[in-house]
Amino acid sequence: MNRFLFQEEGKSAIRLWSQTARSCDPYVPGEQPRAKNIIKLNTNENPYPPSPRVLKALAAAVNGDLRLYPSPQAEELRIAIAEFYGMKPDQVFVGNGSDELLAFSFLAFFNPGETVLFPDITYSFYPVYAKLFHIDYEEVPLFDDFSMPVEKFFGAEGGVIFPNPNAPTGVYTPLEDVERILRNNPDKPVIIDEAYIDFGGETAAKLIDRYDQLLVIQTFSKSRSIAGLRVGFALGNERLIEGLNRIKNSFNSYTVDRLALIGAKAAIEDVDYFTSTCRKIIRTRERVAAELKAIGFQVTDSKANFLFVKHPRIPGRKLYEHLKERSIYVRHFDRPRIKDYIRVTIGTDEDMDAFLNGVSPPLLS
Question: What are the tens digits of pLDDT across the range 78-114?
Fold first, then answer.
């Protein structure tokens, strides 16, 4: 078949798409370059390997039991997570990465025809899910410093969802402000996406027993270095967890594979390694932020494992391309209000020294 006919057949197959497939606006992940000798600071991966206990547990689990389905309830991992947070296993839900949990949450707790609130600068999967599941939403503008206008989230018709710390800004909303949002939405779901909470924030999980409308979503991808295993979890009232299970079991009862469950359990049990890794990333983040400010960059007060920065004279797109030419990958969002910023994942000290060399005078002059 010649190339022209193949292209024409491919185009005609689009007629088979559903209206949903035609109308959805998919999320665009960060670049995953395959070239070697690059510095990858664009997808907020942890620069340090998983706990040795994770690798040991995974090696032991690669055996004949892989012929068996994993536990659909993820009991052992849920018990380990519950122990870490001082909660009951029935208050824990485990899924295939926090993105899956967010999707389930939109289906479980938000209703078409009721407007959900989230920030205008936020994780870009939220509007994707809202459109996919026909959820009305309103983007609430953040202040110029990217902090939350807390009162604007009071009395939400359909509920509230936001990351804390925020993505891509890294700005953290104090727990007392989170609680104000909860008090002023007593009968609507409030979902806090805490993918980056372990790098300097205080988790809202401690509020769960006081607010039955609160759902906290976290991930093993960032602070526990196992993004490749795709494990996320939610914490909340038992009835919220039941709602998530109803959605999950309407799609696939076995969303998390056997190896991922075993690796995640080992990761959350190695508290010393987790704490040490987070401290190293925080220390590097603060050093790099100070050095960037010293050479004229504007830097948000990030409590995540990344920095959100801009130069007063150099457009964000130019910064991104300048670094990419030097095999340093960062993230640029070509969106209103933030198009002159780049988001820079915190790598090892060596990675960050290379990044600083890439943006230091006279290279940018």
Answer: 999 999 999 999 999 999 999 999 999 999 999 999 9
Residues 31-49+272-359, CATH architecture: Alpha-Beta Complex (3.90)
Report, at the CATH architecture level, how domain 52-269 is classified.
3-Layer(aba) Sandwich (3.40)
The backbone torsions φ and ψ at residue 125, rounded to the nearest 5 degrees and listed phi first, read -75, -20
Quick count: other Cβ atoms within 10 Å of Cβ 246?
A: 12
Starting from the edge strand earliest in sequence, which strands make up the sheet with 190-193, in order?
A: 92-95, 232-236, 214-219, 190-193, 159-163, 116-119, 137-140
The answer to whether 267 and 50 have CB atoms below 8 angstroms apart is: yes
Q: Does a cis peptide bond (omega within 30 degrees of 0) precede residue 174?
A: no
Nearest CA to 167 out of 307, 25, 311, 356 is that of 307
Q: How far apart are CA 24 and CA 98, in angstroms?
A: 20
**Which residue shows structure tokens 């009071």?**
154
Domain residues of the chain, as ranges? 31-49+272-359, 52-269
- Quick: pLDDT tens for 23-67: 888 878 777 777 778 999 999 999 999 999 999 999 999 999 999
**Its pTM surpasses 0.70:** yes
Q: Give the per-residue pLDDT at 5.
A: 43
**pLDDT one-digit tens code per residue, 123-151:** 999 999 999 999 999 999 999 999 999 99
**Of 217, 255, 212, 250, residue with least CA distance to 234:** 217
DSSP 3-state assignment of 118? strand
**C-alpha–C-alpha distance, residues 242 and 104, integer Å:** 12
Sort strands 137-140 and 116-119 into parallel, antiparallel or unpaired.
parallel
